[in-house]
Amino acid sequence: MQKLYKNCQNMDQRCYDEYGLSEDILMEHAAQGMADYINQNFYEGTILIVCGIGNNGADGLALSRLLHHRFESIKVYLPFGTQSLMAKKQLVRINKLDYVTIVDELSPADIVVDALFGAGLNRPLSEKYQNIIMQMNQLGGFKIACDVPSGLDEDGVIFSEIFDADVTLTMGARKEALYSDFAKDYVGRVYRLDLGVHYASYTKDEPVSSYLLNPDDLNLPSRDFSKVTHKGDFGHVAVFCGEKEGAGIIAAMASSRFGAGLTTLVTQKEIVPPPYLMHSTSLPEKSTALAVGMGLGLSFDSAYLKQNVLNNTLPIVLDADALYHADLLEVLEQKNREIVVTPHPKEFSAMWKILSGEEIDIEEIQERRFEMVRKFNRQYPHVTIILKGANMIISEHEKLYINPHGSSKLSKGGTGDVLSGLIVSLLAQGYTAIDAAIHATLALTLASASHTMSAYALLPTDLIESVGQLNQENLDQEIAQKPPYIYFGSGKTE
């Protein structure tokens, strides 16, 4: 699990005030980290570094000085000159070297480094800057963003044009903005650069904005605690199966696959479920967790739902149609039960209007995903919310977790039902709401990533099968092959 921060301004200032480090020293370490990455991964070719007028541009200028001589050419383009004192100082330094060339136009290169804007961009880009970024994206070559891709603001929203990076080398600490849904297509792989002081000292006392989930954070259900068990030891899930019974059946299948001892479909019509699922017209007495909303429609009247859903304290997942249902949303007022709600942006909009009377359109929700989740959690701190998207956001008691491992494979009807089934299965087995949400989303995304069929072909049933194949051994192998969170700088890699 990695800590995320809104920005690094206070942490940089601590380096100046408490550790006696200068802006120049931090910049040298940032540039050395970028140079380490390039020198370790590329052995020849041409490099173009596009620098802005401020300190992000200064980082790029320092980088050009530190690169290895083995590269055929190291070119620096300053489309708007230099403005900050550090940028001017770094320009003086490279003008004394014979292996860095200042050029007056963009030209193709094997490696293109974006050092126009760093973190903290808070205004739309001028047309001139937009044109520069557009041309950089058209150059080809391997693209590296310095700190954040230019065009991404502090909230993770894109201003018109954005640099399309293969890798982002971010300074000091990870920024929350890099894990917005808007950023996902543009940041590439993200690496953190050390700035000349141990990370623990750099981030000391700084409030954490949110947490990034790693594959090795997944805690799969276990049956290793005893050889003498029975199905009742692993919980009894009740899934309310409504008008579109396929959604409920998918959720129940996922629940059973993920370790629930028993799974019952609660239904008021004839269905033909898989033979390992039970079905009933009433809530089983020994149920240990409920899931309501997937394909619910109008199958159950309000009196039935109140009697069977609101008049108990069983852990519960509310999804899909339940988020449009004012009676069912009364569950959120119950502070003595484990509750998980799983909206996508449209469902969040409908749910929030019922709960608060405030209308928020889908576009605004997408632009303010982190803020929307925090806003919900301030009103319902005891409720765990999962805002679905390319990067799922999970929160309880205003503590946010981001799952960045989703992909387009999951863009298909039924995957949300699988997720609800995974969550309720863990709730039935005794996980807290926040733990069930974290581990179920990780299982979902990692199962989809491990599936070998074409991205367009994955079915919910395939996904359920892949969940069943997750184990610590194959997770460890995948992590070893794709180390997601290393950093460069100060001669250290982790």
Structure description:
- The C terminus is likely disordered.
- This protein starts with a strand and ends in a 6-residue tail after the last strand.
- 34% of the residues lie in helices and 17% in strands.
- It has 2 domains: 206 residues, Rossmann fold (3-Layer(aba) Sandwich), CATH 3.40.50; 251 residues, UDP-N-acetylmuramoyl-L-alanine:D-glutamate ligase, CATH 3.40.1190.20.
- It is built from 15 helices and 20 strands.
- A 12-stranded mixed sheet has the order 8-1-10-19-18-17-16-15-14-11-12-13, sandwiched between helices.
- Helix 3 packs parallel to helix 4, helix 7 crosses helix 12 and helix 7 runs parallel beside helix 14.
- It is of the alpha/beta class and 494 residues long.
Labels describing this entry:
single chain, 494 residues, alpha/beta, Rossmann fold, UDP-N-acetylmuramoyl-L-alanine:D-glutamate ligase, 2 domains, twelve-stranded mixed sheet, eight-stranded parallel sheet
